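Troubleshooting entry. The earlier prediction with calcium ion gave an output that would not parse, so I re-checked the input for stray whitespace and re-submitted. Clean input:
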Amino acid sequence: VKREGRNDLRFFTAEMQQRSARNLQLVSALRQALERGQMQVHYQPQFSQQGGRIVGAEALLRWHSPELGQVSPAEFIPAAEDSGLILPIGAWVLRQAARQARLWIDAGLAPLVMAVNLSAVQFRQADLPRLVTQILDEEGLPAEYLELELTEGVAMHDPQGAIAMMNSLHERGVRMSIDDFGTGYSSLSHLKKFKVYKLKIDQSFVRDICTDPEDKAIVGAIIQMARSLGLLTIAEGVETAGQLEFLREQGCDEMQGYYFSKPLPAAQFEQFARARQ
Ligand code: C2E
Ligand code: CA
Ligand code: CA
Ligand code: CA
């Protein structure tokens, strides 16, 4: 028994060592990713309720490392957050997205709101409002074309600080939405004080919407609640016509998902949008 225990322990530490070795490798590769031009931003269209009109785009980061191959943001974003690299990377995404939105306005695409994911680490930086304003000024994008997607987690440790930060961004004209809504712990009393204009219904609720009565009820309730608070709703992860139909019936304002389009490189997004204008 004793021996087995020791073997277990050895196995466990070997696995942990492997994991932290991977993490070190990831962070050291990440450090150079921006300057070496390995990062790209893709854009996923967001549609109005009827599904015909593109009203927005979500900027999603892509990283191809020569050593590690294509790395998913689900893996490298947490490593970037732990190492602090999310600050330069996040600022870069914001600038790319703002620049692209401006280019599309100049190219005559119908106006769309550019949604950018914001890490809780970025959200805790006191100079965030100044940084955002500076990037918008330099890229020539009016603030109302930018939306910052925050997760419920940003407010968890310091709701008062989060409310102050949202007020400051709001004063500068930037829109904010709550991403992955329903998976976090934000209380309704906080939600009322948040300067957000839209809730993004998490894809985990959308997935089984056609078959699971509980998910139906949850999504229906979120949409009702949002409406009574004067907030818009967008559903993410919409993959089928059936999901779309249910969401329309419930009065969900906007949709996003593979049913319409995957996230696309900028040039392809532009083609896609032109074909629908
Ligand atoms: P998220 O913000 O919840 O983004 C939605 C994810 O769902 C994206 O994955 C998107 O490609 C994927 N998706 C879109 N439509 C569908 C669909 O119909 N079905 C399914 N199954 N998936 C769909 P992605 O691009 O791999 O990003 C994963 C997460 O990484 C994002 O989740 C976000 O939390 C984070 N992330 C991505 N880019 C950035 C960024 O620039 N900054 C920060 N802080 N986080 C980012
Ligand atoms: Ca998002
Ligand atoms: Ca999401
Ligand atoms: Ca998510």
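This one parsed fine. The beta strands are 39-48, 54-65, 69-71, 113-117, 146-151, 175-181, 198-201, 232-235, 254-255.
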